Amino acid sequence: MKFLGHEFSEQDKENLRNTGNMGRVVDLVNPKTNEIIPSIISKDRLTNELVALNTNYMKIPDDIKGVKLNDEQKQILSEGKPLYLEGMISNKGDSFNASVQFNAEKRYVEFLIDPNKKMDQAMNRQQTVNEEPQKVFRGKELTDQQFENLKEGKSVYLSGLTDQKGNTYNGYITFSKDSGATEFSFQNPAKVVEQAKPDEAHKTQVAVNSEGKTNEATKNVKESLQAAQTSPVNKKQAEEQQKTKQPNRSRRRKL
């Protein structure tokens, strides 16, 4: 299993399964420029898609829930590793301990919940839910107006998102105050506009390029799909697709 030139170790895979974060900094290769970029990797919990973040964009806070971080603790977080903190103060004024780690997909330090510990669900939820959405979604920064609309619970249309193969797609995002997550959909969930329709143009592209699914009309095309593509778009792709459509002629011997 490779991702942008990185070969995952068994420990990497286990970390991604358990916490959603790989837990270390690795050198990734930009597929367009071949530039080597030190990055951390996390898994989008909604789509299971891998997300990488350049370490230059990691912002480590000075304190977390009342606990001031020293240089050593900040260094641990900047390396993508988990950090156990004691004496944090919840929104209700209660003291609690927990592990925290920087998440590449969310672009901030999150709380890691130990599944082996029986924690009060309300307390658990209180510590992990974000009070407001992040201004960056899948690498795209929202405008001030889009950010305000998202905070108000409105659906926001985003264009120019990029899938794992570098092609763009569009869709809607909505912030859930209950889960604290920003959710993506090809269709406007709130249906703010009567004529809002699913962004069908990009469903096939993302399904094939990022989710590993197969589209019957393009299953033999070796290139990554472009926006709105559901069938071959050029002679080369048409020839690749046509190869398996032609039935094999049975060999018969003339008497």
From TrEMBL:
Compositional bias per record (Basic and acidic residues), positions renumbered to this chain: 213-222
Annotated segments matching region Disordered: 197-255
Composition bias, Basic residues: 246-255
Occurrences of domain DUF3945 (ranges): 61-113, 138-186
Protein name, as recorded: DUF3945 domain-containing protein
Transmembrane segments: none
Stored InterPro entries: DUF3945
Native source species: Chryseobacterium indoltheticum
One Pfam family recorded for the sequence: DUF3945
